[in-house]
Structures are given as structure tokens and as C-alpha cells.
């Protein structure tokens, strides 16, 4: 019997409605492709030694495109480094002893301390093309993005509940399967929130990474950061408002197109036994899930490629342990280790020669500045934690509120504090304050968001069944905080405090030394010392201040934060 089929014209409206869902996706793909071509053409152009930053609002769309491209590439680089770094630190005790102190050191070194070496190296590597300057700027942005993501993945990997680890062993998951099916999914919520904080940090340091001075060389890259810096130097409040307005618009757009869908997607990895009463939703994520075009691409291209790669990597992870042990002791590794020792020895010798040029008064000013900045950073952490912990917990427990508060917090975290400095100065002068108070406010503007975002991530990861148990037994608010909320968010809070501490030391460079209307406003501190040394091309003072800052941060991390990490991974595990 022949099957009845309706005429083609009757099914046409349904097919058109299905195809209409893909129109926004195709349009977005075309716009993205055009943007990539435009950025690539600019980066491949010859170096322009005299870049003039236009303060006309008409230049802002192009500048926004360039800045978004730099931050996006820097984020991809940072994510790859963070995943590899955290995996090595979490799975190898020998590597952990080396990598964690190194991570503490690197996250404490300000962006401006990396700036001379990175920029000179990239310019020497690609001297005739704009790509050299662009690559240097991207690497500088990446140095401010990678550390909190690495800390987040490391801490959540160490805090995986015991029953999940036992289930992975019972099912005989190899290293690759455990990593992709347990560790990364368990770390997904914290990683997404810390990714938002990393990108916000990229926006915060954009002014320093797109417009900088190396001795007598004034290097500029067209972008929102250089636009805001030029406007601040000229005292052009109208241009500052235009630049901030465009930056806020870009941040909101990225939030709706990228971060909100990622947050909604990451909720499926929440560790709970009952379905939450409230769930984060995203129209963009629903549009992507219903797309016929993306489904066809996934079925025919992405899924087969991913399965083939998964099989290859899984097969490599199942090789005998003897073969892996034999490879570790090959002569190539011994040569690499010897080369590393020689490089470290030579670098240490050169550092010693450079620091020998510092006088006693300079060393005294370094120590005095370090003491003042240390007290300033600790005050910033205390003041930030007093309001971010309760508010972040309140937001994280309410998905609908988190949907509204997330873009607001992201905007506040992304706006460069130095762009707001004229307003702060006017308010503080009228209130009788000065640069000492202003620097603490600037530090808070740049670092309190690390704590807030991590606390929100920790609270949103609390299983709904545990919250329902507290409600059923009628626990008062004090008992609920003591028995559930604080223990549950504790690992995330420590990650936020560690990254906020490193971020505060980084932000001290722009908080203690600010240019406005051709004038330089500064206060005593290690950050101001680094900024002055960078402007003057005094590499001995720059190196000395950076080493002192790194030593302080590493010492505090070893004595305080490392012990709290150990406590979070042993006593405050979320397990049965």
C-alpha cells in the first residue's frame, strides 16, 4: 500500500520555521568571519610607528573589535595553559611542589613587570609587522587571565568527592576518561565563573596593555584601552564617558551571547541527587540547541572527529606504566633538564649583576614601599570579603537573581578603575581624603570581584537536596551558615581570596601611580615604584621591586593560603 504524503506546499511553512531558526546563527557566523578577516588584515600590516588614537566616537566600533579580538585570543591561550597547568599540579606530587610556588610567583608579578621583556621580545621576533606588537599585548593580557582559572581547576580537582573517585576506579576509567568525564565536568561551574573574571580582568588591564611607555618609546595599539587612556591623559570627560559606554555595551553583548549560555549549560554538571526548583535559562542556548544547521554540523563533523580523538587519546592513556616510566628517563629529558639548569643559573647570575646596581637608599625605599602595599592589600581583602561573601552566597542560591546580577557584576569588574579615577579624586578631595584612600578604593575596584565570582560559583554549586534538608529541619540562619553554607563555599572562597590577593598586588601598579590631565598622582608603595621604574626605563629598580613583590606573595601563600587549601581538600569536601 502506498504511503500517503501531503503536498510539498503544505509542509513548506513548517520547514521555513525550522530554517528561520538558523538565520541568526548564519548571520552571526558571517559577522564573525568578517571580523576575523578584518583583524587578520590589520595584524598582518606593516608596523605603524606613529599611531594616533582618535577620540571621535565614530572610531569606537573598530576599536572595540580590536580589543575584543585581543582579549578573546588571550583567553583561549590562558584556558589552554590553565587546564594543562592545573592537571599537572593536581596529579603529580613532585610537579605540585614546583608548579604551585611557581604559580604563586607568576600571579604576583604585575603586568607592567612583564611588559618590557615581553614587548621587546615580540618586537624583535616580528619586527616588520604589526603582529609583533599585537602578540605582545595578547601575552600581557593572558598573564592577567590565566592564574585564577588554574587555581580554580586545581582546587576543584583536589576537592572531588570520594564516592565519585571510587566510582571512576570501579569503572576502570583511564586518565583521559577520568579527566574528560569527571574532573572537567566537576570543575565546570567554577571554571565558567572564573573565566568571566579572567575576561573582566583583561578589560581592567586593557589600558596598560594597549598603550605603554618603554623608556623613550611610546607604543600604542588602537583599541578601547588606548582610547580610554588617551582620553584620561587629555582630561576629556566626554570621551571617557563614550568609551565606557561602548565598553559596557560590548560586555553586556558578550554576557548574553557567551557567558549566560555557558552558565546555563554548566548547571547540568551540578553535583546533586534531586532536580533544583529553579534553573538558569538562556534564549541563546535554546536557539543553539534547536538549530538544524548546528545539529547537522555536529553529527557529520564535530562528533566523529571528537570520537576519533577520544579513542586515540584514551588508547594512549592505557599504555603500560612501564612504557611511560621508560619514556620519562630518556636522554632527551636529561638534556632538557640540564638546559633548564643552565638557563636558570645564567638567569640568576644576570639578575644578581642587575641588582648589584641598586643603592642602599633604593633598597630602603623598596622595603618601605613593600610594607605599605602589603598593609594596603590586606585591608583591601578584608573590606572586600565583608560584603562579597554574604552577597555572593545570597545571589548564588537564587538562579534567577544570579541571571540579573551576573552582567551587572561583570560590568563593574571590567570597567578600568583608572578610567573612573577623576570622579574618585573629586569625591575624595571634597571628603578630605587623598591618594592613600583612593588607592585602596582602586584596589577594591580591581580585586573584590575575584571573591564575589568565586563565592557565587560555590553557592550555586550547593546541591538542592542539602538546602531542602536544612529547610525541612528548620535550621536557623546561623546554623545554616555554620553547617552548610560556609563549609560548601569554603574551597571556592579560598580560591577567590588567593586570586584576589595576587590581583591586588597586580592592581597596585595602577592604583598607586595614575596619570591624569598631564599630571602624575602617586602614593608610597611597591606598585608606584614599579610604575616609576617602567616610565624611567630603570630595569634594576623594576627587577628589584618585582622580586620583592613575588617573595612577599609566595611567603604569604606558603604560610597561609596553602594550609587553607589543604584544609578545604580534606575537611570541607562535599561527599557522603
Derived structural class: mainly alpha
Average of pLDDT: 77
CATH class: Mainly Alpha
Helix tally? 23
Note poorly predicted spans. Answer: 8-14, 320-329
Proportion of beta-strand residues: under 5%
CATH fold-level topology: MetI-like fold
- Major β-sheet, in short? 2 strands, antiparallel
By CATH, the architecture is named: Orthogonal Bundle
Question: What would you say about this model in short?
Answer:
The protein is mainly α. The protein is 79% helix and 3% strand. It has helices at residues 8-20, 23-43, 60-91, 93-108, 111-125, 130-158, 162-170, 175-204, 206-210, 224-234, 237-266, 283-289, 292-317, 321-328, 331-355, 360-396, 399-414, 421-431, 435-460, 464-472, 477-511, 526-536, 539-570; strands at 211-214, 217-220, 513-516, 519-522.
Q: Would you mind describing this structure in some detail?
A:
With 576 residues, the chain is mostly helical. Helices cover 79% and strands 3% of the residues. It contains 23 helices and four strands. The protein has a two-stranded antiparallel ribbon. A two-stranded antiparallel sheet has the order 3-4. The longest helix has 37 residues. The radius of gyration is 26 Å and the shape is globular.
